């Protein structure tokens, strides 16, 4: 029996991407969750805050919070979808069969990342379009920068979902990782309380969480019509965190659940 190679093959990565996209095409519930759910959740926030008055010269509550949620919703949704999808591959024996071929772990995970990254791009375009047209979300900067940041954050969710799936034995356990990985980042990203108002040790933790930089990047787009160096630095940090998570996922990926 042959074993999986450790050399990255663009052909095998592309084949994995195509296989995952074919599976997604036939999974209508997952497609609805990825593409429609963020827009619907954003709509709830719009209904909650559309009539809340704002201070003169300040963005409305919905404009401020809704913009950052354009990055948070894709992160959460893609984390859940990816962690469960990869766990199903392992528990069904598909992963073990794939890794007896020349397909390497890195090929597999990059293929998953690319497939869900494309899905994230579609998700971001739909959500941002709905937010700026139906919900009249006001953004000072370019809408396409918001889409870029949302996609980067979704890919981060994919990478962390793949990493979390390596330590889960069931779908229930995969979902249990969300409070561990997602909620601390949400609480400390600066959305609920400005980071400069946090206790020093909480701010130190916030400084090493990638979602912090995604939120900061979106806030930069929200208040500046021009691109800023801080925004690009933040996007680079989010992308670097995604690459690191993918590398760790490749190192810890198991063939099957014992």
From TrEMBL:
GO cellular component: ATP-binding cassette (ABC) transporter complex
GO molecular function, one term: ABC-type transporter activity
Membrane topology designation: Multi-pass membrane protein
Keywords linked to the UniProt accession: Antibiotic resistance, Cell membrane, Membrane, Transmembrane, Transmembrane helix, Transport
Domain ABC transmembrane type-2 per the UniProt entry, residue ranges: 29-256
Keyword Membrane: yes
TM annotation in the entry: 31-49, 69-87, 108-131, 143-167, 174-193, 235-253
One example of a Gene Ontology biological process annotation: response to antibiotic
Pfam families reported for this sequence: ABC2_membrane
Compartments it resides in: Cell membrane
Entry superkingdom: Bacteria
Family: Belongs to the ABC-2 integral membrane protein family.
Name of the protein described by the UniProt record: Transport permease protein
Species the sequence originates in: Geodermatophilus tzadiensis
């Amino acid at each position: 029996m042959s074993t999986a190679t450790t050399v990255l093959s663009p052909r095998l990565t592309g084949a994995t991407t195509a296989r995952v996209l074919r599976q997604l095409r036939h999974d209508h519930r997952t497609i609805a969750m990825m593409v429609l759910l963020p827009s619907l959740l954003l709509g709830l926030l719009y209904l909650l805050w559309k009539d809340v008055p704002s201070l003169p010269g300040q963005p409305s509550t919905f404009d401020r919070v809704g913009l950052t949620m354009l990055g948070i919703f894709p992160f959460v949704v893609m984390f859940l979808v990816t962690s469960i999808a990869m766990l199903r591959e392992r528990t069904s024996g598909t992963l073990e069969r794939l890794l007896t071929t020349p397909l390497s772990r890195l090929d597999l995970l990059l293929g998953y990342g690319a497939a869900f990254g494309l899905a994230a791009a579609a998700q971001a375009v739909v959500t941002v379009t709905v937010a700026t047209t139906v919900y009249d979300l006001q953004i000072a900067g370019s809408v396409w920068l918001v889409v870029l940041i949302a996609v980067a954050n979704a890919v981060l969710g994919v990478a962390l979902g793949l990493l979390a799936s390596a330590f889960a034995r069931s779908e229930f356990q995969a979902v249990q990782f969300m409070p561990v990985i997602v909620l601390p980042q949400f609480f400390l990203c600066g959305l609920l309380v400005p980071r400069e108002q946090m206790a020093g040790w909480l701010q130190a933790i916030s400084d090493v969480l990638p979602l912090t930089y995604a939120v900061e990047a979106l806030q930069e787009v929200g208040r500046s019509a021009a691109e800023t160096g801080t925004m690009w630095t933040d996007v680079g940090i989010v992308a670097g965190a995604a690459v690191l998570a993918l590398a760790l996922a490749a190192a810890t990926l198991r063939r099957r659940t014992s």
